């Protein structure tokens, strides 16, 4: 059977000397899909990097309007191929067509691309800074090398390496992208790359603007992120894989932005349980089970008061875990990964409340699993008891009092999110005021009376956090304008003649709307004189 082609240097062609092949799986049927894809070796990687560097040079003469136009055409192309994309993504992930794929994730993806286009046109993202007395001027601009994007398995559109948030941000900053498809949905990524490449051609951009590889051997992936021609890497996936890539990139001095693991702790204060225990239990179950527990923001840890109220809450959550069907996991490795994570929790003092086993059936699934542990036991093994089990799994920690809740918060790893449920009438204010400052330092996004699984695609969003949730606490994978800055370099100009400056740094504001920091004050105006 012939292999699906890679896209390199503007050509859909056979992989050169592939090291292996693979097929995607339909997780709802535990069956392999017919298409086979190549595992690219060094020859394809070197060819892609060479073409990307040629694109870097060609982009120097292209305007922001060209980039913005490409992003908008790409969004239009995705919508024109929505039926085909949704069908393929459903086959490869088992996510429901409605509402998940067609009405939620696909519109989010096109919205991200259009937000990026608007930011490129408006240009404030580049943080133009001008000191007129010294005539030193600076702005953020392209890296001078392609961005390699490793997409995750759990968002076939919105985080796809050829269309998602990292892709949009890298392109908006003026960089070409080498997309490394997630092997869970290579067909979906191929379709998105086709739509992107059509937009590249119709926009007149260099053909190396977008390239696609499906998989590489591990050692070649490490060489890719550390290659001298690479500008930066964006990675979303497991902690073990992310840390290996980070070590290789760091050793070579190459930026890499990682989103890895997070248990997203939820603290439920006593007043909240007295007031609305059942409501909070429903919120917790819904958030734990969304996407079969395979979102990076699913809560894997809940801290509740020890005693009658906490036990009642446990029983309410248990009833929901046992009373609802388990979702379909993304692939064959899902059940084993969940079982391994649960095994670590049990080995270090957790007790199984319900679930805990892989389920028989037509698709890959694992029973909704609830565990419990005392606050003291958690404090004795905090690292092991924060092990992520990527499914509908929650460890409920019973704290003796507020002081122990504070201790638990202080022993948390870095997470994407953290939540505190509190009494609506203010009965928990004293407890909240003691826990929140500590939890604030452990998470990228702090929530109050709200579960963490909704990630709004708005400019104020932080989808990041302290290590090991990400590789750097100062950056976000969601939220334009901030997400663009990850894939940029600071370009400084000292006494450069006015006609040789980038338009953003000349005396006249190039858009009339762009915000610039001029002599310490933000302005949309021109510089007189």
Describe the structure.
The termini are far apart. Helix content is 37%, strand content 19%. The chain has 529 residues and is of the alpha/beta class. It is globular. Helix 8 (239-251) links the parallel strand 10 (232-236) and strand 11. Helix 4 runs parallel beside helix 5 (165-172). It has two domains: 44-260 and 476-485, Aldehyde Dehydrogenase, Chain A, domain 1; 266-448, 3-Layer(aba) Sandwich (Aldehyde Dehydrogenase, Chain A, domain 2). The protein has helices at 42-59, 64-80, 82-93, 97-122, 165-172, 186-203, 218-225, 239-251, 270-289, 308-323, 333-347, 375-380, 402-410, 429-440; strands at 6-8, 11-13, 20-26, 31-39, 129-131, 136-141, 147-150, 177-180, 210-213, 232-236, 256-259, 266-268, 301-305, 351-354, 369-374, 393-399, 415-421, 443-448, 489-494, 516-518, 521-523. The chain is built from 14 helices and 21 strands. The strands form five sheets. It has a seven-stranded mixed sheet with strand order 14-15-16-13-12-17-18, with helices on both faces. The protein has a five-stranded mixed sheet with strand order 19-6-5-20-21, with no helix packed on it.
Can you tell me the CATH class of the largest domain?
Answer: Alpha Beta
Give the percentage of residues in beta strands. Answer: 15-25%
- The largest beta-sheet arranges its strands as 14-15-16-13-12-17-18
- Whole-number total of structural domains: 2
Question: What portion of residues is helical?
Answer: 25-40%
Which overall shape is indicated by the principal axes computed on the Cα atoms?
Answer: globular
